[in-house]
Amino acid sequence: MICIALYTTMHRYDLTTIGETMLRLSVPAGERLETATHLALHPGGAESNVASLLARLGRRTVWTGALPDSALGRRVASALREAGVDVDHIVWRTGGRMGTYYVEFSQPPRPTQVIYDRAGSCAAQLGADDVPWAPLLATRLLHLTGITPALSPACRALTAEAVARARAAQVPVSFDVNYREKLWSPAAAAAVLRPLIAGVDLLFCSQGDAQRLFGCGGAAETMVAQLAELSGARAVVMSVGDGGVLATAGGAQWAEPAAPVGVVDRLGAGDALAAGIIDGWLDGDLAAGLRRGVMLAALALSQHGDMVVTTRGELDALLAGQGRLVR
Predict the structure, then answer these.
(1) Catalytic residue positions?
(2) By the 8 A CB rule, do 141 and 278 touch?
């Protein structure tokens, strides 16, 4: 009981998150991986993308995961540290490998191609006993995604342990379904994720994942209500692609259209959306979070790399309509 009281009264962080961060190697649109001579390198991971963006907005965030004690692992840690994320609780491995993924950007009619090389990574071997729970749960919000439990049985147990410990410590939980078809089937994902998302404080799910995993259907407004009913989440946010985002909480619904943008890099936009909404949630204003989220998603689409670089001042100016072609 003493530990729980400490967790709930002393907030060392605004957000704690756990997951895998990889290195992305990409070629620009118009080039093919099989003939590439140069690759751009960017760290990226669903959870760390959220933590880094919130840190740049001035929030106190911490990310933990397992990294190899090598130049590749230190590259990831340096990027997070530069953004302002606390990396003191990373689990360093003297052996093991770094997860990577390769991206071939393209224009229609070809889709962007992604090749993952992450099997057996240090992150996939992270277990609940490796995590320093006490400092990490001194937080206002624990943010998790459905990617982590798909990595391995150990990561599945880790995610369940994180949810259970957060609930015991009365720490709110945010969960992004973030389904990855290359990691597991819709049926397997739904079976694992349903108990994890039950009763969470903030649930993120795309319209496609709501249909594919949970059988939701009908108009978008109906689907977000179905997500709220089947999960019991206090607030549910459903992204609808170019249509923007819908949210429901306490019987009310909000909608926010997507912000216009010239697309440079499509990866990381969903994590930027989640970061903006969490930012609003931390302020007790979900509607403001939707506005911030769609703007940050647009910023993500306009920049190279998964981790968005911005400031609170820039975000506020864009939301106030003060953008200019040249500043």
Answers:
(1) 271
(2) yes
